[in-house]
Amino acid sequence: MNKFALFIILAMVLTLVIACGGISTNVTSNNPNTVKLEGQSFATSSITISKGSTITFLDDPNNGALHILVIGQDGQQESEQGAPDFGGAAGQRVDIGDTWTTPPWNTAGTYHVACTVHPAMNLTVTVKG
Q1: What is the DSSP letter of 16?
Q2: Where are the alpha helices (DSSP H) in the chain?
Q3: What does DSSP assign to residue 49?
Q4: What gap in Å lies between CA 77 and CA 60, rounded to an integer?
Q5: What is the pLDDT of residues 32-73, one digit of tens each?
Q6: In the chain, at which end, N or C, are there fewer CB atoms within 10 A of the end residue's CB?
Q7: Residues 56-84, buried b or exposed e (16+ Cβ, 10 A)?
């Protein structure tokens, strides 16, 4: 590839980045029930939410990792009656810098969220009626 073609490609990429508002590593969520995923752990081990609420999982863009979230514990998907659907055994994939918001938690009770990639990642969700 000659230098001129390389220059044109770089100029086009730079123009695209500027036109799209730049590259952001500051991923945020407006959901008050946000749980940050940091490396191989949840930022908190438990969360209490109101019935009908959702939870947003935010994978830290600077210290994140691939996570596959399931209803269950210790990296294993386990059915918990009343918990929202996370995609069954396949789970919900959350990549570095991504956010994912659960369906509403419509049944009061205590539930568990785990990461199949990092079995030590466990979150207890308490849904208040």
Answers
A1: H
A2: 3-19
A3: E
A4: 23
A5: 999 999 999 999 999 999 999 999 999 999 988 999 999 999
A6: N
A7: bbbbbeeebbebbbbbbbebebeebeebb
